[in-house]
Amino acid sequence: MNWKRWIATCFGLGWLPKAPGSWGSLPPAVVFYLMMWCCAPGLGTSAAMLVMLVAGCAACILFAPASIAATGKDDPGEVVMDEFAAQALTFLAIPLVVARNLSGVESLVLAVFGFLVFRIFDILKPWPIRRLERLPAGWGILADDLVAGLGAAVFAYVAMRILVR
């Protein structure tokens, strides 16, 4: 097994059957949930999301070309570090908006909401997201997901401002 592909697949999550992008989005959502519930919202949770965002971006750019070469596809479904990074981006600012400690149920609802909003943006790829897939190698794989993550973040931020006080 090629270790570069192993990293690009988020340590094998991209090889799981059915919806590999959802599997790749799951680790940041779980970390977000646990940190919002156990550690309280704030800079620590945002810092964790930032680390996951940067690590996912670097892994996608550096290691996705190995999956591209092995599969012959421009955007192999097995590469899920792009979803990993973009899901972290979706959650990046939310801890700074929530001004109070959340219960376990509230934290879970927030994590599931952010996860679903990102997956919808990533799957539907509203304009101009799809055009970014044309960028070369790992950049094209990553860019469309980051913009989807940014769109989901804005949507989640607006929803948070309206729903959570």
Helix percent reads: over 70%
Pattern of helices and strands: HHHHHHH
What structural class should be given to the helix and strand makeup? mainly alpha
Low-confidence stretches: none
- Mean pLDDT across every amino acid position: 89
Approximate shape:
globular
Oligomeric state as shown: single chain
Largest sheet: none
The radius of gyration computed from the alpha-carbon positions, rounded to a whole number of angstroms, is 15 Å
Please report the total strand number as a whole number: 0
**How many structural domains can be distinguished in the coordinates?**
1
Distance between the termini: 49 Å
Q: List the total number of helices.
A: 7
Beta content comes to under 5%
Description:
- This protein has 165 residues and is an all-alpha fold.
- It has one domain (20-163).
- Helices cover 72% and strands 0% of the residues.
- The chain has helices spanning 3-8, 20-39, 43-71, 81-91, 94-97, 104-124, 137-163.
- Helix 3 runs antiparallel to helix 7.
- The protein is globular, with a radius of gyration of 15 Å.
- The mean pLDDT is 89.
Ordered list of secondary-structure elements with their pairings:
Layout: H1 3-8, H2 20-39, H3 43-71, H4 81-91, H5 94-97, H6 104-124, H7 137-163
Helix pairs in contact: 2-3, 2-4, 2-6, 3-4, 3-7, 4-6, 4-7, 6-7
Briefly characterize the structure:
This protein has helices at 3-8, 20-39, 43-71, 81-91, 94-97, 104-124, 137-163. It is an all-alpha fold and 165 residues long.
Structural features:
0% strand; mainly alpha; 72% helix; 165 residues; globular
